[in-house]
Amino acid sequence: MHASHSLEVYKFGGTSVGSSAAIQKATSIVKATQSRLIVVVSAMGGITDLLLETAKKAATGTDSDIDFAVSEFVRRHREAVENLLADSRRATELRQIIEKSAVEFQSICKSLAVLGEVTPRILDVSVARGERLSAMIFQSFLQEAGVDSMVLDATEILFVEKRFSNLIPNREKCLEAANKRLTPALDAGRVVVVPGFIATGPEGELLTLGRGGSDYSATLLAEAVGATSVTLFKEVDGFLTADPRFVADARVVPELTYREAAELAYYGAKVLHPRTIIPLLANRIPLTIKNSLAPDFPGTKVSDDCHAVDFPVKALTAMVNQSMITVTGNGMLGVPGVASKTFTALANVGISVSVITQASSESSICFVVSSEQAKAAQRCLNEAFAFERSARLIDDVHVEQQIAVLAVVGLGMKGTPGIAARVFSAMSRKKINILAIAQGSSELNISVVLRESDVKSALQELHGEFRLEKLRPLPERVEKHVDLVTLGSGQIGRSFIRQIIGQKHFLAQTLGVSTSCIAISDRSGPVLNM
User: Fold this and answer.
1) Among positive and negative, which fits the CA dihedral 303, 308, 312, 316?
2) How would DSSP label each residue in 96-161?
3) CB-CB contact of 233 with 292 (8 Å)
4) Max Cα-Cα span within the chain
């Protein structure tokens, strides 16, 4: 590897570091990189779920589950060490670290069995060991493969604050820590390996960033160090036009804008953590999603620099395990503050709402929450509207279970007439009942609320309606430069130069060709610009 001005962030997901062979493949990708590099790693595939479920079950006092989990935890990590490392001293050190981590986890679980309850903080401490061990093993193999590298724990450089139920980065502290801890190592030509998924909270406590949080770790680090790009290596080829479990002919979406990717992530596309895009926006850092087992495949690029395509709809996604709550009452008509009171009550108990619709008659408000939060939402609204219910201004707070939200996403939908009509016609052909609809003025997303049992049929019909099976990966754009020499500056010559200037953006963005005029010559002689 050679130091350069470019600075990249690579993130390898659980499958990409889930076995000895996968780690070897990821290492070969790192070795081929010519840029300064930060590598974020997830826990080995399946380890986070193993730790999380075991800690939760420990409160029931099931010792056999604890013993099995600890044994499996040790086996997976020791197997990777044995297969990867020839350095017996480092291998011995790692085996000792693995054993110590396993004993600590076993002690935590036995304490939980006595207490009979588990707290979020204990869960965070329990699962963090997966990412930390993964980072140590990955860095040790990098070093043995001849890559000068080091491990830097994420809790030393990523700091977050709590706002309601969300974790918000403390950007000043992240930037300060990055300048102090990360930049000197990168400038010295070292690859810095960072465990993903974890950060330091406002009280100095360890916090996890949620499911898929290593993606978020990568883009937070990219923002802090001013990276030139982020690449997320996963077990998939990129963003797909739909969930392949439901749509057999789903295709990789070659390019997405930041807004399109954010919408898809929020509405259930598991390829990205929902907040991954946010740190990239200020500096317009491009992000690419690639398959670590097929790194030559172009994957999906997320940026503002997108080709124009003939597909106003780019992708479909669906959130399942949702519930629809409807607040109804004829007494709501013309009464100010009902919507405000509804969503303030939900916000006060940390409940997030994904879709909102309200009838023009103001006699009902309908919204969607996760099924896990549905009962809590109903309870808090009944309490908030106790007076209105007794006065019969509000009749009911009704919950409907087994609901899904299907999102139709594409920036090209804006200004393209008939998209909504095609959505509804396609669903009508399959006799799918639409329970609610939401579309913003940006026309980036049409969200349809329907029953979970209709999701597969709806996705298949809409995928065919918008011909998404026709999407193909775009050829890789290799930047080319053309120097122009104009012989003659009469009417034709001047027209040609004006055309080149006018098409400069098109040539660069669509064809990957940059141009400059280095000489003009006519009867009066040449003018050189070299």
Assistant:
1) negative
2) HHHHHHHHHHHHHHHHHHHHT---HHHHHHHHHHHHHHHHHHHHHHHHHTT--EEE--GGGT-BEE
3) yes
4) 96
Three-class SS of 464-481: HHCCHHHCCCCCCCCCEE
Q: Are strands 480-487 and 513-522 parallel, antiparallel or unpaired?
A: parallel
C-alpha count within 13 angstroms, C-beta hemisphere, residue 405: 28
Distances (CA, A) of 228 to 4, 245, 301, 402, 437: 11, 34, 14, 43, 39
Sequence length of the chain is 530
Q: What's the rounded Cα separation, in Å, for the pair 392 and 255?
A: 52
Closest to 9 measured CA to CA, from 256, 271, 221, 320: 221
For 393, residues 6+ apart whose C-beta sits below 8 A from its C-beta are 329, 331, 332, 335
Are residues 90 and 58 in contact, defined by beta-carbon separation less than 8 angstroms? no
Q: What is the DSSP string of 448-461?
A: EEEEGGGHHHHHHH
Tokens of 440: 């913003």
For 106, residues 6+ apart whose C-beta sits below 8 A from its C-beta are 66, 67, 70
pLDDT in tens, the chain (530 residues): 444 579 999 999 999 999 999 999 999 999 999 899 999 999 999 999 999 999 998 888 766 678 899 999 999 999 999 999 998 899 999 999 999 999 999 999 989 988 888 899 999 999 999 999 999 999 999 999 999 999 999 999 999 998 866 789 999 999 999 999 999 999 999 999 999 999 999 999 999 998 889 999 999 999 999 999 999 999 889 999 999 999 999 999 999 999 999 988 888 777 888 889 999 999 999 999 999 989 999 999 999 877 656 788 999 999 999 999 999 887 777 667 788 889 999 988 889 898 998 766 667 889 999 999 999 999 999 999 998 888 888 888 999 999 999 999 998 887 788 899 999 999 999 999 999 998 865 678 999 999 999 999 999 999 999 999 988 765 444 456 777 888 877 777 778 777 877 777 667 655 567 777 777 887 777 777 65
**Helix or strand or coil: residue 166?**
strand
Beta bridge partners of 40: 11, 194
pTM confidence score: 0.83
**Rounded Cα distance, 267 and 318, in Å:** 6
Q: What are the beta bridge partners of residue 485?
A: 519
SS (H, E, C) 200-248: ECCCCCEEECCCCHHHHHHHHHHHHHCCCEEEEEECCCCCECCCCCCCC
DSSP 315-352: EEEEEEEEEEEEEE-GGGTT-TTHHHHHHHHHHHTT--
C-alpha distances out from residue 155 to 174, 205, 265, 377, Å: 10, 9, 25, 34
- Residues 315, 320, 325: CA angle, nearest 5 degrees: 115
> Cβ distance 477 to 512 under 8 Å?
yes
